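Handoff note, outgoing to incoming analyst
You'll be picking up this chain. Sequence as last confirmed:
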Amino acid sequence: MTRIKSEFDKRGVKIIGLSVDPVDNHAKWAMDIEETQGWAPNYPMIGDTDLKISKAWGMLPAAAHGDVLKRTASDNQTVRNAFEPGGGSNKKKIRDQPHAPEPNLGRQ
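Most recent structure output, in case you need it:
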């Protein structure tokens, strides 16, 4: 997303990242992503450690629970999606991010 953020900016679209991990981890990710992908995220990230947003947007099942630090990547793999919010409660999923065995594979 970072690499193409300027295209979103031209269209007046804001990018927001959502993570089920604590916000403290986001700075570490940014450094890792920049090192491995050549681009650091340049948009805000929301830490959804209580899973409320992920459940409300249908990225995780309503029954999902547990300490996010003890959940596996497989437990959280469906959170890798992109949505285009519409007016009111309308939303359209526009992209799935497949689960990858390597944590950086597929990150943009």
